[in-house]
Amino acid sequence: MRVVRRANERGRVSAGWLDSRHTFSFGHYHDPAWMGFGPLRVINEDRVAPGGGFPPHRHANMEILSYVLSGALAHRDSTGSSGVLRPGELQWMSAGSGIEHSEYNGSEGEPVHFLQIWIMPDRGDLPPAYAQRMFDPAKRQGRWATLASPDGEQGSLAIRQQAWLRGARLAEGEELVHPLDPARLYWLHVAQGGATLDGEALAAGDAVGLTAESGELRLAGRPGDVADLLLFDLPP
């Protein structure tokens, strides 16, 4: 079974310094039909103006990934970890037993555009943890690269869930497949650009969830476009 979540159907929150689109229910946006997808709980597409950001706040027992599309995102947390995230980098923060963190625009003159992703862990109350890693976009061109996984395979970030996050870039004339296990859940999110999935056009912000599907997921690039694709491979 497939469900399509179009970009223009997502929830929206605007706060002057923040323009956010919520794929799933989050904060003041609530839709009982979109509470998450398996352990995937949040995909927020945030645009934060210069000088803006999220002041220190607390989380527990959540795997939080940040993926910057443009600009710079400055991070600081109560473990003493800090860093500035730029396009091509993925940040992992495991809230564990509890962590306080802040995320601010790391530029004084340019907005930051990023995805904030939450995945529920498969075990709780572990010590908080943090890491960030650069993934060369050239190594994702026309192919899947593992960005996050349970054991850090292929240089990916190790997360506390039996889930994999893979990324790819797809240009005109390129095609990409991924085998499907009917015992797993898959969520495809188009971060930027556009592509076609089995002939169906997908634009930036669109997503497709797949449940109990076998065979292959087949993607193709679109004329004059380069897609930045994220594929979540999740337990039911």
UniProtKB/TrEMBL annotation:
Residues 147-234 form the Quercetin 2,3-dioxygenase C-terminal cupin domain. Residues 8-119 form the Pirin N-terminal domain. Pfam families: Pirin (PF02678), Pirin_C_2 (PF17954). It comes from the Bacteria. InterPro entries: Pirin (IPR012093), Pirin_N_dom (IPR003829), Quercetinase_C (IPR041602), RmlC-like_jellyroll (IPR014710), RmlC_Cupin_sf (IPR011051). Gene3D superfamilies: Jelly Rolls. Belongs to the pirin family. This is Pirin family protein. It comes from Luteimonas rhizosphaericola. The lineage of its organism: Bacteria, Pseudomonadati, Pseudomonadota, Gammaproteobacteria, Lysobacterales.
